[in-house]
């Protein structure tokens, strides 16, 4: 059966659908009361790059980060690809390392390909002196303001042929328990963790802000109606596909990720995103 649409309906449909395929960079800004006034601290949060290209030598993404003049760049995992090399990711990390204080937590894809591939990716971070927070807390000072920066490994570390117990790694839950129990200064506490679907668990601890990725914005969205269709770990119509959430005094911001090539299906009304947070 053939369906014949009036010409004006076809044109209207095209006009509505084509903008949904835009995959240029979207910058999303948030302002959060962290009690650090009169200074403001600007954080750029990036995740889920998956080694995608952003212009020649990654200039498209590097200049976008530079344009924000961040005080801190936080990296929420899955910047690397599953393959043996991640040239775009390495180029990007080279571009920000040393220029900004950077901190990294792993996503599930950092563990793809087994222990050797994982070690090679972590060696890139070590070579660039980008600290990986693996069930650890860094007490940092930005513009004279002390922040507690906690980070946990992705739970994928405990699957896929790794033997974390033999390596002495604490489990995801143990890492969370450990970082939450560490003595803190009186500053603001941020948790970097790749997985947004663990939000209820995060809320049972005393974190002020959680930064997560992984959901890729639910891949497809319908503006004003549907904030994502599918996300790994959450299934269809994910609650935490992207955006800002608040519960029990813990704010969670979920970045929609920077992967712009269609990994399985193209993004729809869900462009790649750079998250910019101003703490005041
Ligand atoms: Fe992920």
How does this model look, in words?
The structure is a single chain. By secondary structure, this protein is an alpha/beta fold. It has helices at 7-17, 59-68, 87-96, 115-127, 164-167, 172-181, 199-203; strands spanning 26-32, 41-46, 72-75, 102-104, 136-142, 145-151, 188-192, 209-212, 230-231, 235-236, 243-247, 250-254, 273-279. The chain contains 7 helices and 13 strands. The strands form 3 sheets. It has a 6-stranded mixed β-sheet. Strands 1-13-2-3-4 form a 5-stranded mixed β-sheet, with no helix packed on it. The protein has a two-stranded antiparallel sheet with strand order 9-10. The protein binds fe (ii) ion.
Helical residues, percent:
10-25%
CATH class category name = Alpha Beta
pLDDT average, as an integer?
Answer: 92
Head-to-tail CA distance between termini = 60 Å
Count the beta strands.
13
Radius of gyration: 19 Å
Helices, by number, come to: 7
- Name given to the CATH architecture: 4-Layer Sandwich
Order of helices and strands: HEEHEHEHEEHHEHEEEEEE
Instruction: Kindly give the count of domains.
Output: 1
Strand order of the largest sheet: 5-6-7-8-12-11
Report low-confidence residues grouped into runs of 5 or more: none
Q: What shape does the CA trace take?
A: globular
Helix/sheet category: alpha/beta
Strand content: 15-25%
CATH topology: Purple Acid Phosphatase, chain A, domain 2
User: Looking at this structure, what is the CATH superfamily?
Assistant: Metallo-dependent phosphatases
Main sheet, how many strands, which sense, barrel? 6 strands, mixed
Subunit arrangement of the protein: single chain
Q: Which ions and ligands are bound to the chains?
A: fe (ii) ion
């Amino acid at each position: 059966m053939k369906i014949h649409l009036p010409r004006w309906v076809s044109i209207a449909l095209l006009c509505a659908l084509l903008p949904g395929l835009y995959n240029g960079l979207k910058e999303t800004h948030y302002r959060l009361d962290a009690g650090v006034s009169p200074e403001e601290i600007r954080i750029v949060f990036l995740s889920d790059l998956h080694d995608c290209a952003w212009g020649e030598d990654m200039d498209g993404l590097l200049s976008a980060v530079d344009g924000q003049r961040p005080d801190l760049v936080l990296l929420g995992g899955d910047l690397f690809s599953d393959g043996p090399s991640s040239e775009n990711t390495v180029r990007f990390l080279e571009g920000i390392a040393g220029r900004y204080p950077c901190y990294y937590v792993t996503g599930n894809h950092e563990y793809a390909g087994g222990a050797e591939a994982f070690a090679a990716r972590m060696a890139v971070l070590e070579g660039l002196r980008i600290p990986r927070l693996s069930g650890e807390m860094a007490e940092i000072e930005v513009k004279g303001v002390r922040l507690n920066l906690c980070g946990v490994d992705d739970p994928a570390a405990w699957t896929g042929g790794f033997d974390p117990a033999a390596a002495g790694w604490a489990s995801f839950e143990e890492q969370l328990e450990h970082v939450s129990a560490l003595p803190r200064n009186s500053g603001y506490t941020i948790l970097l963790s790749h997985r947004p679907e663990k939000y209820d668990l995060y809320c049972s601890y005393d974190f002020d802000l959680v930064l997560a990725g992984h959901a890729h914005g639910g891949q497809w969205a319908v503006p004003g109606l549907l904030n994502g269709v599918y996300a790994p770990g959450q299934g269809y119509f994910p609650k935490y596909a992207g955006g800002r959430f608040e519960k029990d005094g813990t704010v969670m911001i979920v970045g929609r990720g920077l992967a712009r090539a269609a990994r399985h299906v193209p993004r729809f009304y869900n462009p790649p995103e750079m998250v910019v947070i101003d703490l005041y």
